[in-house]
Amino acid sequence: MAAIGRLSQKLLKSAALTQTRQLSAAAAHGEQAAKTWKILSFVVALPGVAVCMLNMYLRAQQHQHEQPEFIPYSHLRIRSKRFPWGDGSKSLFHNPHVNALPDGYEQHDH
């Protein structure tokens, strides 16, 4: 009976040791994977974002923004009451280059 007890203890120790080795190998693999993704983030992703930002900036510099012709559609820019700020006809985030008033675009110098 004692022999069976010793044998079962040796088997349990062996299984625990094997499992510990597997876990440490998995942890080492996880550390290596994290290191790889960190390097990829700095070497590939950030320069890629920077190149895309530069591309859009340069395109915006080349493009001339012209206002489209104002067409006074009856269902757009309806003001049933005045806005509580400013002169009451401009929305809170009004941009005179893009947003038209009910009677047309504001005149501005380029």
Automatic annotation (TrEMBL):
Keywords: Membrane, Mitochondrion, Mitochondrion inner membrane, Oxidoreductase, Transit peptide, Transmembrane, Transmembrane helix
PROSITE patterns membership: COX6A
Membrane topology: Single-pass membrane protein
Recorded metabolic or biological pathway in which this protein acts: Energy metabolism; oxidative phosphorylation
Nuclease listed as a keyword: no
Cell compartments where the protein resides: Mitochondrion inner membrane
Cellular component, GO, one term: mitochondrial inner membrane
MF terms (GO), sorted A to Z: enzyme regulator activity; oxidoreductase activity
Pfam families: COX6A
An individual GO BP term: mitochondrial electron transport, cytochrome c to oxygen
InterPro entries hit by this protein: Cyt_c_oxidase_su6a, Cyt_c_oxidase_su6a_CS, Cyt_c_oxidase_su6a_sf
PANTHER family to which the protein is assigned, alphabetical: CYTOCHROME C OXIDASE POLYPEPTIDE VIA, CYTOCHROME C OXIDASE SUBUNIT
UniProt record similarity statement: Belongs to the cytochrome c oxidase subunit 6A family.
Protein name in the entry: Cytochrome c oxidase subunit
Source species: Carassius auratus (Goldfish)
